[in-house]
Design a protein that fits this description.
Arc Repressor Mutant, subunit A, O-methyltransferase C-terminal domain-containing protein, alpha/beta, O-methyltransferase activity, methyltransferase, 7-stranded mixed β-sheet, Rossmann fold
Length: about 400
């Protein structure tokens, strides 16, 4: 026991010393590495200080926290607290129509994880997290996760036990969502059948795209795309590009650089406003023949992580048939999970993709295998400084 205590003390001292050594770098907003390392060390320090039994029990009860936060969001409590400054539970009850005691109990949970701050008895004020939770995109994301992904994962133990096989599902019509909701629809179709859920999903995707550093800010577009582009050909096809946020960003940064095409399902493209004349909209299902041949770039953002390898190969076969060898490039904008030491966000995203439709977030070695078995050669992995999604550049 004495040896264990000494080891723990030494570990705490080392962690604290490493944190102290990084303090001077925290004033530099651009030093993402220092902030990331501090966050990692702070979590490691917490893990050392907290009794392991507490950590284990906290994990068992963690769904209660997420549900309490979801209820607070449904009642617009975060918005009321942000707008009203320090506000009492009685006032929040009047604003929301909920029982005051109910609000006290819900916000007590939210306060325990710093989603709000309890400044006095039954009085609450906003934290940085409260302000984020008041945003419509974040609130919509909580609803999507709560209504779809969390319920699917709650059913996972029964799903795997009944199947008698602990292997991740790969059929988008026979996975965790289908098991949880007793449906044969894909998750995309299931969400699309509920207008309010579909609206939340679209808001969530738009918000997620808005907070990330754009790939055009750090990927060398001029040397890798524009140089060598041929007149008379399409410069870039944004496949499955949704409302066009990526191709609009590209066009704003590189105006008049060439023909641009946005592709997505008809239900998506038909609802999009008209773009700049240099951007063409095409209704397209990426499991079918690619209508645009010989483009300089075929760009896929957050497409492949939705699908298992078998379905990704079907998508890749279609784009390969349209590419001009030696000229066309495949650019995939997705997460690059480290081979060791994935962050909580990366690990959670991977499991969320499994629950959503049998997809996955991939490591570099998994990307090499996926693309290599489809006949592609990876030219380079490009990664931003802020640990955001990377670019996999490949040719066929």
């Amino acid at each position: 026991m004495a040896s264990q205590i000494e080891d723990t003390h030494e570990g705490l001292t080392t962690l604290a010393s490493r944190l102290q050594g990084l303090v001077s770098r925290l004033g530099n907003d651009g030093d993402h590495e220092a902030k990331s390392e501090c966050l990692h060390l702070a979590k490691a320090l917490t893990a050392q200080l907290e009794p392991p039994e507490h950590t284990a029990i906290d994990m068992a009860f963690s769904p209660l926290i997420a549900t309490s936060v979801r209820i607070a969001s449904d009642l617009n409590l975060f918005e009321h607290i942000v707008r009203g400054g320090p506000v009492t539970s009685a006032r929040l009850a009047a604003l929301s129509g909920a029982e005051e005691l109910f609000i006290i109990r819900i916000l007590r949970v939210a306060s325990s994880v710093h989603f709000v701050e309890e400044t006095a008895v039954n009085t609450w004020k906003a934290t940085r997290v409260t302000e984020v939770m008041a945003r419509k995109g974040i609130a919509a994301g909580h609803r999507v996760v709560s209504q779809v992904i969390a319920k699917a994962m709650q059913s996972a133990p029964d799903f795997f036990r009944q199947r008698g096989q602990y292997a991740f599902p790969t059929d988008p019509k026979d996975g965790l969502v289908q098991f949880a909701f007793n449906t044969e629809q894909t998750t995309f179709d299931y969400i699309g059948s509920d207008p309010s859920m579909l609206a939340d999903f679209n808001i969530t995707m738009e918000a997620a795209a808005g907070k990330r550093m754009k790939w055009t800010e750090w990927y060398p577009v001029q040397s890798r795309v524009l140089d060598g582009a041929l007149e008379g050909t399409v410069l870039m096809v944004d496949v499955g590009g949704g409302d066009g946020h990526d191709i609009l960003d590209f066009n704003s940064k590189f105006p008049n650089s060439g023909r641009l095409v946005l592709e997505d399902l008809g239900v998506v493209t038909e609802g999009i406003r008209e773009f700049d004349k240099s951007i063409e909209k095409i209704s397209y299902d990426f499991f079918t023949e690619q209508p645009v041949k010989g483009a300089r770039v075929y760009f896929y953002h957050h497409i492949f992580h939705d699908w298992s390898d078998d379905y990704c190969h079907k998508i890749l076969q279609r784009v390969a048939a349209a590419m001009t060898p030696g000229y066309s490039k495949l650019l995939i904008n997705e997460m690059l999970v480290p081979e060791q030491g994935a962050t909580k966000y990366q690990a959670q995203s991977d499991i969320a993709m499994m629950a959503f439709g049998g997809g996955m977030e991939r490591t570099k070695s998994q990307w090499r295998t996926l693309l290599g078995t489809a006949g592609f050669q990876i030219v380079e992995f490009w990664e931003p400084a802020d640990e955001g999604d990377g670019i996999i550049e490949a040719v066929y």
